[in-house]
């Protein structure tokens, strides 16, 4: 059995937890203890794994740093690795997503706030703005959601380097088939109930919280909206609601099982102004039939009332297991597809992102 690494980005630092040959996860001392870490990725394409972290230096602004020795030492480009060209008049607020390309060696994508996409060709050391999305005519009309105007989801196609999709809150879902030169909104069927009656299915402007894709079936996508859980079977050309059977269709994360493309996980939250687990019960919901039906999973999770939210990037499914972290600093994992859960870490700062991988 292979070793596993779990990267946990929190409001105050990065925590790495390692499991040796299926043993318990051991949480290592905090890195970047005084700064937020809203984005992490583990790039296993090279001769050694590279851990990438989007960090927030407070007064000094956001940046990207990397480690090629599993967190022992860290490096950062001498100039700001992600910076808007001066002519845009924009400045970087946060790095929301880091995603190594599955088809192009050295390429790493970054989704940022204010809603924009950046591309690196040197393994995440330096990045350049993807002009095609930045110059899209919709962009000036995007409005920030509660978390800001964030490009939080980047989905490169597993086989076609020219095909890539992104999600922006609250711009909606967009896709490109020419490597990012041009983009189209792909939101047909996603209802935006916060729009006036009669205009609740707009071309763009949906408050997409997260989108997930399985690499063996890239035409099928799962989407968690501000209100609604959806599936697309044509790469975002159209969307169908699959929220029936959930106690609430409001939530932030959605993730897909690493081996079963019809199995997905969500964490339903209460009404929009509540944003705590439904009934204050800590439960993950799993569907094994692409959203046709849902099952609550709670074995090993707290039985007492829970009031903490799970954020959009704080749930992740990989070959290492299914993991999620909460805003009260609890992290849980499962090695049996969610049938039972075990604690990975307790009493951390509030969890912003988790990423698990086998080494």
TrEMBL record:
It comes from Streptosporangium becharense. This is Glycosyl hydrolase. SUPFAM superfamilies: Oligoxyloglucan reducing end-specific cellobiohydrolase (SSF110296). GO terms for biological process: xyloglucan metabolic process. The lineage of its organism: Bacteria, Bacillati, Actinomycetota, Actinomycetes, Streptosporangiales. Coiled coil: none annotated.
């Amino acid at each position: 059995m292979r070793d596993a690494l779990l990267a946990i980005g929190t409001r105050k630092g990065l925590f790495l937890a390692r499991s040796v040959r299926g043993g318990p996860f051991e949480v290592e001392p905090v890195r970047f203890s005084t700064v937020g870490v809203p984005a992490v990725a583990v790039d296993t394409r090279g001769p050694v794994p590279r851990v990438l972290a989007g960090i927030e230096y407070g007064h000094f602004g956001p940046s990207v740093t990397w480690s090629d020795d599993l967190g022992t030492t860290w490096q950062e480009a001498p100039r700001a690795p992600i910076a808007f060209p001066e002519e845009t008049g924009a400045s970087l607020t946060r790095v929301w997503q880091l995603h190594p390309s599955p088809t192009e060696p050295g390429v790493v994508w970054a989704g940022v706030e204010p809603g924009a996409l950046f591309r690196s060709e040197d393994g995440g050391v330096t990045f350049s703005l993807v002009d095609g999305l930045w110059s899209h005519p919709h962009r000036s009309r995007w409005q920030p959601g509660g978390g800001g105007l964030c490009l939080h989801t980047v989905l490169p196609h597993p086989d076609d380097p020219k095909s890539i999709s992104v999600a922006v809150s609250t711009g909606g879902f967009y896709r490109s088939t020419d490597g990012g030169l041009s983009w189209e909104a792909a939101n047909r069927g996603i209802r935006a109930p916060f729009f006036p009656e009669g205009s609740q299915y707009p071309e763009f402007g949906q408050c997409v919280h997260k989108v997930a894709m399985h690499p063996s079936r890239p035409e099928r996508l799962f989407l968690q909206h501000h209100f609604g859980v959806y599936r697309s079977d044509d790469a975002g050309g159209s969307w169908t609601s699959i929220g029936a059977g959930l106690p609430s269709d409001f939530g932030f994360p959605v993730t897909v099982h690493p081996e079963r493309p019809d199995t997905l996980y969500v964490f339903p939250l209460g009404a929009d102004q509540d944003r705590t687990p439904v009934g204050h019960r800590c439960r993950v919901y799993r569907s094994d039939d692409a959203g046709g039906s849902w099952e609550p999973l709670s074995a090993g999770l707290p039985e007492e009332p829970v009031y903490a939210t799970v954020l959009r990037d704080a749930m992740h499914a990989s070959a290492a297991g299914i993991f999620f972290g909460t805003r009260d600093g609890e992290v849980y994992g499962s090695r049996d597809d969610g049938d039972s859960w075990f604690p990975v870490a307790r009493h951390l700062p509030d969890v912003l992102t988790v990423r698990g991988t086998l080494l």
